[in-house]
Design a protein that fits this description.
Blueprint: E1 5-11, H1 32-40, H2 46-51, E2 71-75, H3 84-91, H4 109-119, E3 123-128, H5 131-145, E4 148-152, E5 157-163, H6 169-183, E6 190-197, E7 204-205, E8 210-213, H7 221-227, E9 232-235, H8 238-241, E10 249-251, H9 256-269, E11 273-279, H10 281-287, H11 292-312, E12 317-322, E13 341-346, E14 359-363, H12 367-377, H13 389-392
Helix pairs in contact: 1-11, 4-6, 9-11, 10-11
Length: 393
């Protein structure tokens, strides 16, 4: 039976074990899923387990389903890097040959001076830092002076933080837009607006974060599906990650629960095409903050809602659950980790002519998802990925 709709959900940062080159990235020992489970005394994720999560090679801390209701496997990242843009673009069919530039020793002075020239704002910081820590440390000076807090991380990012009482959110977005144009020649992957609120000692980043991404270097499967006249809905920060290309609709969210709600709503309203969701809280609220307990609770909360989504699907829909990189909250690092990512592929097999419980093995690139989507929708895609659709048909 032909498929007419696909839902892809990225559990942001849900890695499942270090890749062979993890040491090159300083990520030896990273194992997001298993290490979280060990840290909290076991994960209660029966629905993901029933889909076959525990059967994936390398995962030992999740029960192994006897009759998994989904096909399962893991994917390696073929592109160099471990960041959001690289991971999502590869999922959509693009393998990068070179990593985005990063600045672990801090942003260059010429870049910071250029920021002031481009935006008219003075800057504070300029170093590689944890966002919550630098806001707490430099927030009081920002309140006094109005200078914007600028920082980077292990990713290719130029982050700009401003208190919502000092700089209006829309103004912060305009600053980021001008910064994005200025930084394009540097090939920095993302400029990120980081609004925050509160008082010294209790500052808190708000949900109005916005990413200003470099555009993908060539068309993704999203653009191919859109060009074929099919709807493509991005939920969460998908629109920002792809520089708003290849989408017919963008739905922004305030948290992962909101993102899950919006996904179910989209399923009820969009009868065909692609629905592409990013659940970012795992990464931003828990992985980067080394909060294993919070990560576990967030994962268990989403797991508990999976039956709602699965029940809403019809026999012509395929659901793909995966991740874009790791971010192990149990390690000393607060950065992303170079890990394999899980791959779960579900459909209502009792009424469709597709197999279930198939071991899809270790895929050699995230781009296999893009290649599979291209085959589902009958579109052409310049990609190094290999569709796994023939393995489950």
């Amino acid at each position: 039976m032909p498929l007419r709709r696909a839902i892809v959900i990225v559990f942001d940062s849900l890695g499942c074990g270090e890749m062979p080159d993890a040491a090159v990235y300083g990520d030896e020992g990273s194992d997001t899923i298993d290490n979280i489970s060990r840290a909290v005394g076991g994960l209660r994720i029966p629905n993901l387990a029933a889909m076959g999560l525990g059967l994936i090679e390398g995962i030992t801390a999740v029960p192994k389903a006897q009759r998994p209701c989904a096909s399962y496997g893991r994917m390696r990242e073929a592109s160099p890097g471990k960041d959001t843009s690289t991971g999502h673009w590869e999922i959509a069919g693009i393998r990068l040959d070179a990593p985005f530039p990063t600045y672990p020793r801090g942003l260059p002075l010429e870049m910071l001076e250029g920021f002031t020239q481009a935006t008219g704002y003075a800057w504070l910081g300029g170093m590689a830092a944890s966002g919550t820590e630098i806001i707490e440390r430099l927030g009081p000076e920002h309140l006094r002076t109005g200078s914007l807090i600028v920082y980077t991380s292990a990713d290719s990012v130029f982050q700009i933080a401003g208190h919502e009482a000092v700089v209006a959110v829309e103004e912060l977005y305009r600053v980021c837009e001008r910064t994005r144009v200025f930084l394009d020649p540097y090939n920095i992957a993302r400029v990120i607006a980081r609004p925050f609120a509160g008082s010294p000692g209790s500052f808190k980043r708000t949900h109005r974060r916005k990413d200003f991404s470099m555009p993908p270097p060539r068309p993704t499967v999203l653009e191919a599906i859109k060009a074929a006249g099919r709807p493509v809905t991005g939920i969460g920060k998908i629109g920002d990650i792809f520089a708003h290309r290849g989408l017919t609709s963008e739905i922004h969210t305030t948290c992962d629960m909101d993102g899950f709600d919006k996904t179910i709503e989209a399923v009820s309203e969009q009868e065909d095409g692609l629905i592409f969701t990013n659940l970012v809280d795992f990464d931003t609220l828990y992985g980067h903050r080394n909060d294993a307990a919070g990560y576990a609770a967030g994962l268990e909360a989403i797991d508990a809602r999976l039956p709602e989504l699965m029940e809403a699907l019809d026999k012509e829909t395929i659901l793909i659950i995966t991740a874009d990189h790791g971010c192990d909250p149990t390690t000393a690092s607060t950065d992303h980790s170079r890990e394999y990512v899980p791959l779960l592929v579900y459909h209502k097999h009792k009424t469709a002519s597709l197999k279930t419980g198939i071991d899809l093995g270790t895929r050699q690139t995230f781009a296999d998802v893009g290649a599979t989507l291209a085959e589902v929708f009958g579109v052409s895609l310049l990609s190094t990925g290999v569709s796994f659709l023939p393995e489950i048909v």
